[in-house]
Amino acid sequence: MSTITGPAKMSRGRKVAIAALCVGVAVAGTLVYFLVRGEQAAPHGFPGDHHVIVYLDRDVEDDVLEQIESALQEHPLTEQIEYESQEEALERFQDTFSEQPDLVDLTDAADLPSAFRIRLTDSDRSEEFVQEFEEVEGVYEITDLMEAYRYYEPACIEFEDKGISPAEGDTESVLYEIEQACSNFGYDF
User: Fold this and answer.
1) What is the DSSP string of 30-72?
2) 3-state secondary structure of 81
3) How would you classify residue 134: left for phi > 0, otherwise alpha for psi between -120 and 50, otherwise beta?
4) Alpha-carbon distances, residue 111 vs 12, 61, 95 (angstroms)
5) Which of 67, 179, 184, 188 has the fewest CB atoms in 10 Å of its CB?
6) What is the model's pTM?
7) CA distance 172 to 105
8) Which are the contacts of 137, defined by CB distance < 8 A and separation ≥ 6?
9) Domains along the chain?
10) Which tens digits make up the pLDDT trace of 84-97?
């Protein structure tokens, strides 16, 4: 029988795998974050500051980054664009997961993608915008916040109108998931 003394060391590959998983969770969480943080949130209206988030490859070259930024700025559907560096993404990650210090300790800025957050002139055309950029060199992933909004918003209206909500303490049901998403859009059951 062997005894372990001191903290177990984790391989770099395992750390990167855990960080990649966290990035996936953070990408999903970003949707909620941006929908909640909209200062002009009103019931029955998209509350977020941005409609689309374009995540970049972690090792994107400067010239490719500049080409992507230029293409985004010149696109007729782009109203506003905001760049978030890997360091800024790390700050956001640390804020989001502040109650999980072990996870925060495993993640470096280099593990997270930089991103462009875009507000569109016509949010109904977000799918078209996403399709134009999803295969561009240097783009890792695109999150269409409007797609989630279009998905949940009709259910939110119906649930609010009919007074439907999950049973108290029922955090595992689809009703609970819908209620949480709806609350991010300004609905209150």
Assistant:
1) HHHHHHHH-TT--TTS---S-SEEEEEPTT--HHHHHHHHHHH
2) strand
3) alpha
4) 11, 16, 16
5) 188
6) 0.63
7) 29
8) 64, 67
9) 30-144 (3.30.70.3040)
10) 999 999 998 888 88
